[in-house]
Amino acid sequence: MNEGIFHRQADSGRRALTTYTRGYVVALSLLALLATAHLVVKRWSVEAAAASATVINISGRQRMLSQRVALMATRLRQERILGRVQASTQQALRSAADEFLQSHLDLSRGNADRGIPVPVADNVLAAYFSGQPSLDEQIRQYVAQARQVADDRVLNEASLPIFSEAPTQLLHLLNEVVALNEANAHAAVARIDRLQIWFWALTLLTLLLEGLFIFRPIVRRSRASLAAREVESARLAEASHELREFAYRTSHDLVSPMTSIQGTVQAVELLLERGDGRRAREGLALIDQTAQRAKHLVRDIEALSGVGAGSHEEPAQDVCAVLDTVCEELADEARQRGVQLIAELQPVGGWPVSALALRQIAHNLIHNAIVYADPDTAVESFAEVHLEQVDDVLLLTVEDNGVGVEPAQVGRLFGLFERFRPDLASGSGLGLYLVRKLVERCGGEVGYHACHPGSRFVVRLPRNGLAIE
């Protein structure tokens, strides 16, 4: 009865922890959302202020350039009358006209490189493009007249508007544009200020509501479920410790792809020395593929490390596909070691065991069969992989004709950090230990049988051995 009460309290503590977690997540998410929104508005205000300052500055300079164009045109006309035309005056007029036109194009159409936004305000667009003629047309005509004067392509210069009413009229219109830009900038700043005030008020309101409806209930419930939460914390701490230990133990399985990469690098170096660029590129492609497989293996190990801590496990949708992938990953190492890798797989479809666990089990057993091949044998070394279903049990058998295991060592075969032939393999002695732990986690069993020569490992995985969450 006490045990039942304890379990009910533990369940209550777990439910309370879930509720607390959700409450904290909601609260922090809201605060993060508001903080992000405030940051976005702040950056927007800075960017808007910078853009407005740029627009106002360039529009003011454009106003000055209009008068400089008129001044240079008048000076050049006087020099022609006196017969003392200066090339510098012509160039100054052309430069002023070009800069004047470019400033107009930037202001009326935008220029991202100069930090000038495309105008969207109706009053500014109307100032540039409404009327007959529009300001846009007048500026283009003004620049065209300036260029005609600079190039001496006008018979009667005195008749050009650039020497009479055009400068004054244009200056008046440009003054209006500057005033519009300044007014729009002030209005934008005012809107952003109001928006920031709203975000500030919304943040205060959110903090108040979180205190009333999230944090106060959490504090109240936490007093009643302290014992259950302590039990849950202890369990989580233990799970975290197991996760770190498991990740450390599985790290040695990355040695295989790294070894393959090192061997391929050496081969590529020899090919490059011989000038065989095509095969060298193939070797580089193989290195890339192996590195990708290593990266995937790291991700698999990380995902698999969470299985013991109650993480979600994906069942094997196609067992044969998982084993084919493992065989493909190890095929190159098998060829390098002179081992014939044979796979006889009965199609069994999916199986309710972790695909990641199955992949790791098969990888370790097949890799051992390859690396523990007998270097002194007179016959061809082999590693055979068999898969079949007997009733509701999945049988995975990995057999080889390698060096085998001494009878005195069989009892320690699946132990932690057990290494029997370091002259053949440089592993850390975690591979078979990991196989045993994974098989047991899947509700199955693994056994060893001596073959004389060689070894046979049989993995039995019942269909109902592991409940996939």
Task: Describe the structure concisely for a colleague.
With 469 residues, the protein is of the alpha+beta class.
Helix content: 55-70%
Strand content: 5-15%
Largest sheet: 5 strands, mixed
Distance between the termini: 29 Å
Q: Which geometry do the CA atoms define?
A: elongated
Give Rg in angstroms: 40 Å
Tally the helices: what do you get? Answer: 11
Mean pLDDT score: 82
What is the number of independent domains? 3
Class per helix and strand makeup: alpha+beta
| Spatial order of the strands forming the largest sheet | 2-4-5-7-6
Number of strands: 7
User: Could you name the ranges where pLDDT drops below 50 across 5 or more consecutive residues?
Assistant: 1-6
String of helices and strands: HHHHHHHHEHEEHEEHEE
Descriptive report:
With 469 residues, the protein is α+β, with helices and mostly antiparallel strands. The chain has three domains: 2-211; 235-310; 312-469, 2-Layer Sandwich (Heat Shock Protein 90), CATH 3.30.565. The chain is built from eleven helices and seven strands. It has a five-stranded mixed β-sheet, covered by helices on one side. Strands 1-3 form a two-stranded antiparallel sheet. A hairpin with a 2-residue loop joins β4 (381-390) and β5 (393-400). α1 (2-82) packs antiparallel against α2 and α1 (2-82) packs across α4. The longest helix has 81 residues, at 2-82. The model is unreliable at 1-6 (pLDDT under 50).
